[in-house]
UniProtKB/TrEMBL annotation:
Protein name, entry field: Polygalacturonase
InterPro entries: Glyco_hydro_28 (IPR000743), PbH1 (IPR006626), Pectin_lyas_fold (IPR012334), Pectin_lyase_fold/virulence (IPR011050)
Key words of the record: Cell wall, Cell wall biogenesis/degradation, Glycosidase, Hydrolase, Secreted, Signal
Catalytic site: 347
Compositional bias segments (type: Basic and acidic residues): 36-69
PROSITE patterns referenced in this protein's UniProt entry, alphabetically: POLYGALACTURONASE (PS00502)
UniProt source species: Brassica oleracea var. oleracea
Taxon lineage: Eukaryota, Viridiplantae, Streptophyta, Embryophyta, Tracheophyta
UniProt-listed GO biological process terms: carbohydrate metabolic process; cell wall organization
Family that this chain belongs to: Belongs to the glycosyl hydrolase 28 family.
Length: 507
C-alpha cells in the first residue's frame, strides 16, 4: 500500500513540474509580446514595475535577448524541482494525506501554477481522512459481532465535511443488519480488503429488508478488491417454503442499494444469500463493475441482481451463479445496460416478472448484450402474469448473446404462472419494440425460440435477426413457436421463425 501511495505521489509531483514548465513558458511568451498576465499576489510588484517601465521597452528587449528563454525556463524548473524534491523527502515518511498536502504546498510555491493540482487535472482534489474499522474496535475474527464498530465509523463518515474513506482491513467481519444511510456531507469511499459475514440463524424480517443496506447516498464508491459478502443462506434455503406459498420476501437480501445517485460498486462477490443477492431500488446513474454472485442452483429465490424503479444503471463484467434469475428487471427501470455478463446456473437474464401488482411503472430502454448464458433454465426472457393490470415494456434489445446448453434460449412468456395459482384472463402488459439479434449456441430443449404473447395485447414491432440455435436434446431439431405476434425476420434464422403455435403446457 505504501509503495502504491509513493507511486501516486511521484505522478502528482511530475504533474507539478509539467505545470511549472508550461507556466514558465507562458510567462516568458507574455513578457515578449507585452501581454498583461493573470498573476498571483506575489506577482503584483512585478506588474507595477512593468507599468513604470513602459517607456524603456527597447532596453527591456535588449535584456531579454541577453537572457535566453531556455535559461529562464531552466531557472524556473530548477526552483520547481527543489520544491518537489523537498515535498517528496517530507512525504516519504508521512501518511498519504500528508504526502498529498506536501505536493499541494510545492505546487503553490511555483510562480503561475494552479493550486490545488487536482483542479488542473479535473479531479476533486486531495481526499479527506481515512477511517479504519479496526481502529474503532472491529475484530475481524469471524466470531465477534463487529456491527457496532461499522456503525461507529459510518457515523463519522457521514458527518465529515471532506471526502472520507472507510477502510476494512483483511479479516472476516461478522455483522448483523447494517443500515449505512445518508445523506452524507461529502462523498464516501468504502474500501474493503476483508469480508463480511452474516449470522447463519434464520430470522424473519420485514419484507424486502436487507442485511447490508446502502441508502440515500450521492457520489458513493464501494471498492471491494475481491471482498465477499457471505449471507450464510444454506440453512434458510432448507426451511424456505416460497415455492409452495409464493411468499418469499421475509428473509434478508444480502445487499440493498436504495436511492443512490452517481455511485459505483466494484470488485465484490455476494455469496449464499438467504434471498435476493442484490436489490437496486430507486437509484440513478449507478455502475456495477465486476460484481459477482455465487450460490448453488438449489438456492431458492436467490435472484442475482434485481433492478427496479431505477434510471441509468450499468452492470458490466459480472459472473453470476445462482438458483433464480441471474438478472431480473422490475417495473420503473429505464436506460439499463447489461454487458459482458456470464450467467449460469440460474434462470437466465429476465425482464419481469411484471403485472402481478397494480400501477407498475413502465420498463423502457433495456439493452442486454455481449453476454454468455450457460446451463440455465431460460436464456433471455420477458415474463408477465396472466390476468394482469395494464403495463408496458418498450424498447428492449438482446444482442450478441451466446447460449450454451440452455433451456428455452429466447422466451417471451405472457402466461407466467410459476405456482399454479394465477388470475384468469390475458396479460395486459403491452410488449413493444423488442429486438433479438445475433443470438447463437445450443438449446437443451426442442423449442429454442418461444414468443408467447398475450391475446389481450399482442406484441408489437418484434424483430428477429441472425439467430442460430441448435438443439442438443433427443427430441429432434430445434423449432420456433409463436402466438399473437408477427415478428420481422432478417438474416440467418435457425430455427426458421414461428413454424409452430405455442402450446399451453409449455413455458
Amino acid at each position: 500500500m505504501v509503495g502504491l501511495r509513493l507511486k501516486a505521489l511521484f505522478f502528482v509531483l511530475l504533474v507539478v513540474m509539467a505545470i511549472s514548465i508550461a507556466n514558465a513558458a507562458k510567462d516568458l511568451k507574455e513578457q515578449d509580446v507585452g501581454v498583461q498576465r493573470n498573476l498571483h499576489e506575489d506577482d503584483k510588484g512585478d506588474k507595477k514595475d512593468a507599468k513604470g517601465e513602459k517607456g524603456d521597452k527597447k532596453d527591456d528587449k535588449k535584456e531579454d535577448k541577453e537572457e535566453s528563454v531556455g535559461s529562464k525556463v531552466a531557472k524556473k524548473v530548477k526552483g520547481a524541482a527543489a520544491s518537489v524534491a523537498s515535498a517528496a523527502s517530507n512525504a516519504s515518511a508521512a501518511s498519504a494525506a500528508s504526502a498529498a498536502s506536501a505536493a499541494s504546498a510545492a505546487s503553490g510555491k511555483i510562480k503561475g501554477a494552479v493550486a490545488p493540482i487536482g483542479d488542473k487535472l479535473g479531479l476533486k482534489g486531495p481526499s479527506g481522512p481515512s477511517i479504519d474499522v479496526k481502529a474503532s474496535g472491529a475484530k475481524g475474527d469471524g466470531k465477534t459481532d463487529d456491527t457496532a464498530a461499522f456503525m461507529a465509523v459510518w457515523k463519522k463518515a457521514i458527518e465529515a465535511t471532506t471526502p472520507t474513506t472507510i477502510t476494512v482491513p483483511k479479516g472476516d467481519y461478522l455483522v448483523e443488519e447494517l443500515l449505512l444511510e445518508g445523506p452524507s456531507k461529502s462523498p464516501i469511499t468504502f474500501e474493503m480488503h476483508g469480508n463480511l459475514k452474516a449470522p447463519s440463524a434464520v430470522t424473519t424480517r420485514k419484507p424486502h429488508s436487507g442485511w447490508v443496506n446502502f441508502r440515500k447516498l450521492k457520489d458513493f464508491n464501494l471498492i471491494g478488491n475481491g471482498a465477499i459478502f457471505d449471507g450464510q443462506g444454506s440453512v434458510a434455503w432448507k426451511v424456505n417454503d416460497c415455492k409452495q406459498t409464493g411468499k418469499c420476501n421475509n428473509l434478508p437480501i444480502n445487499i440493498r442499494l436504495t436511492q443512490l445517485d452517481n455511485s459505483r460498486i466494484s470488485g465484490i462477490t455476494s455469496t449464499n444469500s438467504k434471498l435476493f443477492h442484490m436489490n437496486i431500488h430507486q437509484c440513478t446513474n449507478v455502475t456495477l463493475q465486476d460484481v459477482h454472485i455465487d450460490a448453488p442452483a438449489e438456492s431458492l429465490n436467490t435472484d442475482g441482481i434485481h433492478v427496479g424503479k431505477s434510471v441509468g444503471v450499468t452492470i458490466r463484467g459480472s459472473k453470476i451463479k445462482t438458483g433464480d434469475d441471474c438478472i431480473s428487471i422490475g417495473g420503473g427501470t429505464e436506460n439499463l445496460l447489461v454487458e459482458g455478463v456470464e450467467c449460469g446456473p440460474g434462470h437466465g437474464l429476465s425482464i419481469g416478472s411484471l403485472g402481478k401488482y397494480p400501477n407498475e411503472e413502465p420498463v423502457k430502454g433495456i439493452t442486454i448484450r455481449k453476454c454468455i448464458v450457460k446451463h440455465t433454465d431460460n436464456g433471455v426472457r420477458i415474463k408477465t402474469w396472466p390476468g394482469s393490470p395494464p403495463g408496458l415494456v418498450s424498447g428492449a434489445l438482446f444482442e450478441d448473446i451466446t447460449m450454451d446448453n440452455v433451456s428455452l434460449p429466447i422466451l417471451v412468456d405472457q402466461v407466467y404462472c410459476p405456482h399454479g395459482k394465477c388470475k384468469s384472463g390475458p396479460s395486459k402488459v403491452q410488449l413493444e419494440n423488442l429486438s433479438f439479434k445475433n443470438i447463437r449456441g445450443t438449446s437443451s430443449t426442442k423449442i429454442a425460440v418461444q414468443l408467447n404473447c398475450s391475446p389481450g395485447c399482442p406484441c408489437k414491432n418484434v424483430a428477429l435477426a441472425d439467430i442460430n440455435l441448435v438443439s442438443t436434446g433427443k427430441e429432434g431439431a430445434a423449432v420456433s413457436a409463436c402466438s399473437n405476434v408477427k415478428p420481422t425476420v432478417t438474416g440467418k434464422m435457425i430455427p426458421a421463425a414461428c413454424t409452430e403455435e405455442c402450446k399451453p403446457d409449455k413455458k
